[in-house]
Amino acid sequence: MSLLGHLSLWLAFMVGLWGTITGFAGGAQQRVDLQQSARNATFALFGALLVAVISLEIAIFRHDFSLQYVASRTSRNLPTFYLWSALYSGQEGSLLFWAAVLSLFGALTQLLTSRRHRAYLPYVAAVTSLVATFFVSVMLFAPANPFKQAAFTPLDGSGMNPQLQNPGMVFHPPMLYLGYISITIPFAFAIAALLTKKLDAEWLVAVRKWTIVSWLFLSIGLLIGMWWAYVELGWGGYWAWDPVENAALLPWLVMTAFLHSVMIQEKRGMLKKWNLALVIGAWLLSIFGTFLTRSGVIASVHSFTQSPVGFFFLGFLVVAAIASAIVYVNRLPLLEAEATLESVVSREASFLFNNLLLIGLAFSVLWGTLYPIISEWVQGVKVTYGPPTFNFVNIPLGLVLLLLTGIGPLIAWRRASTSNLRRQFALPVTVGIFTLLTLLVAGMRELGALLAFSLGAFVFGTVFQEFARGARARHRQYGESTAFAVLQLLSRNRRRYGGYIVHIGIVLLFVGFAGMAFKTETEATLRPGESAELKGSDGHLYTFTHLGISQYNALNRQVTAALLDVRRDGKAIGRLRTEKRQHVDAFGNNTFEPSTEVGIMSGLRVDLYVVLAGLVNGTEQAVFRFTINPLVWWVWFGGLVLVIGGLIVLWPGGTAVVVRGSKASSVQAGYAVKLEAER
Amino acid sequence: MSDHLSRRGFFAVAAAAAGAVIQDTVRAGRVYDPQRAGRAQSPITALDTDGRIQAIEKKLRCTCGCGLDIYTCRTTDFQCTYSPALHKDVLRLAGQGKTAQQILDEFVKQYGQVALMSPPREGFNLSAYYLPAIVILAAAVWLLWVLDRWTRERKAAAKASSTAPPDATPEELERLRRELDRLPG
Lengths: 679, 185
Known about the structure:
The complex is a heterodimer.
Chain A: H1 2-29, H2 32-61, H3 68-73, H4 80-85, H5 91-112, H6 121-141, H7 167-182, H8 184-196, H9 202-233, H10 243-268, H11 272-295, H12 309-331, H13 347-379, H14 387-407, H15 418-441, H16 447-478, H17 482-492, H18 494-515, E1 520-526, E2 531-535, E3 541-554, E4 557-568, E5 571-583, E6 595-597, E7 599-602, E8 606-615, E9 622-630, H19 632-650
Antiparallel strand pairs in A: 1-9, 2-3, 3-4, 4-5, 5-6, 7-8, 8-9
Helix pairs in contact in A: 1-2, 1-6, 2-5, 2-6, 5-6, 5-7, 6-8, 7-9, 8-9, 8-11, 9-10, 9-19, 10-11, 10-13, 11-12, 13-14, 14-16, 15-16, 16-17, 16-18, 17-18, 18-19
Chain B: H1 7-22, H2 51-57, H3 70-74, H4 82-95, H5 100-111, H6 126-163, H7 170-182
């Protein structure tokens, strides 16, 4: 398997190089034979990398510990479920996974792209092959080859990090990688559009679905990562502004900006330069994130390791940024807008401010992430830019963004009249103010949470109003029932109404985030039969009674479990179990330090979150940390709603969007008039 | 909340804590294999859960490399040996009657500014807090200016074109008029 894997990597490297050269040459010289060869190279590249992936998986499942990667990431008693994920649980395997998925996307792009956009495909093949070849070259030439032989073959492997042995970790990395990787396709089309000088909105049509796919995978990856951090790490939260979390958030913010600004180009032929810059920027940020994760340049709990692999990525990032900038600047004269803004009070303008804020937020996160390095450069002092600073800087920006989420859909395209504004804003503003006053009367004084709930209500009001008006119009026109009319709205204009569902998801996420302002926690040492009490922000008193400790062996671990009885205001509501796990190999040897499994009782209002810190003097007397986290359930539900909204937008069919091309066509305003002679 | 833990208050809490530890009698039976349950823990004392101590520890970074503050690390990563030691340092300094700010200063003196979870708001570090907002505000003002210029240019162009003769033949204009007349309303 090792030899086959090695050969496949070399084959992939050569085929990738060939695809890159023939793609660029075929595009530049308009030679059909070279273009066809580049297309075939994308399929061959995928084939070679698929063989490499299968070789590694077979080695993992056969426990072939002669491979260093297999020996250092798995053990004989690792559950089958996690043997699959061992493929991408380490540096070397994840690089292979990345290259293979990128080659798959590259091949699919060649297969699925409409004939209309054929002119772009040679360059798209060249770019995807080039990026995949870079990843393969990192495996071959940096110390990151998953098929490297171990110095000796151990009887059993070291096993997988216990924190990775969680269902969230099986799905989180591939989802995030899929998001990261698929950004390469819009980037490839952007570069192809620049090189072919076909810079009308056609390339946007070609990449629209890919962009949403990227955004959706990134969203799912981020959400599952948050869930994993919450249920596995035990610190009681889901977002710690870790550099690697930030690295995933950056392209997500830029992609979100692009998904909004692209509408202006489609409808008005404006923002061509901006949209290209966003796509290129999102891709560069995805490579930057990979550099951060793999270089160890900034301290992070996620970092794979401090290795020279990261600096391969830095070199690639610099070269790619310079090359992209040269092509981009060279084509700027061809990127003039076809229309200008009619009014500052228009949806176009509100989208511009939305873009400004999203990119500003991305800048802010990047600034915070890099600030420790910047500070060391500028003032020669090492500092920490921790969660308190991130929250101070970014929470106000997030709230303004939430406000704009509501304002955007309320303002008409081109120009909004005063009466139009009054009619559009009346209900949502009333809902927002009513919520604010109700919360104030109820005694809430936490400013951030007050604003988050009130602005959330305002955005919810805008979406409700949009659905209500649309459904009422359909009811009047077709006599449809309200429920059916709503379904028809979603079905016929998936992009618009799916987008509104995404907005609802965002509101729910903010509601969940705001809930954390009311978190309560305590620690206690309990003997069996003793209880600890903690008052939740929901006004209830929760009592946790320690029932006892049990120890037993499971497949690859020795478990110490504590069981607690939970009561709310004296009434039993269930039991919680929290564990310490000592993972062992097939011979019973300890493989990692003991890890903690959190006990969570999740509800709509609060989550009860219990962690077993350890035992006192080897007795059943145990130290616990109790946390009551309000509204966390809404974060996961909001995430689900956001993903469903994204899927609705992505789903094929629905009404085709009129795209403003290079020739004059515009949003229809009033009647469409056709002269008799043209009929 | 006063950030000053008085010497008397500290010893009162410490005495209660010691009492709690002494009270830890043998009512709890031994487990089969204590090694499996990770590092042995000391019973929680009143000082461990003291809000003032926690507030100080949330401003200080653990030196183990986890990136978390001392409080979060010592109540999350129970294998970490750094955060319990740093916690003891905080308790020791509080026991000497130092204020929260004096404790933070002591940590900065010993470990440098990196010991703080947030950079001090002075000098270049002000940019850590305010630069993003300033950049966004400046960009927003610039955007407003650009949008205003665009809309004014457009209005001027529209005014100029409305005074120019229509770019159509009289026959075409007549056909257009006929079509418009056919429209309802």
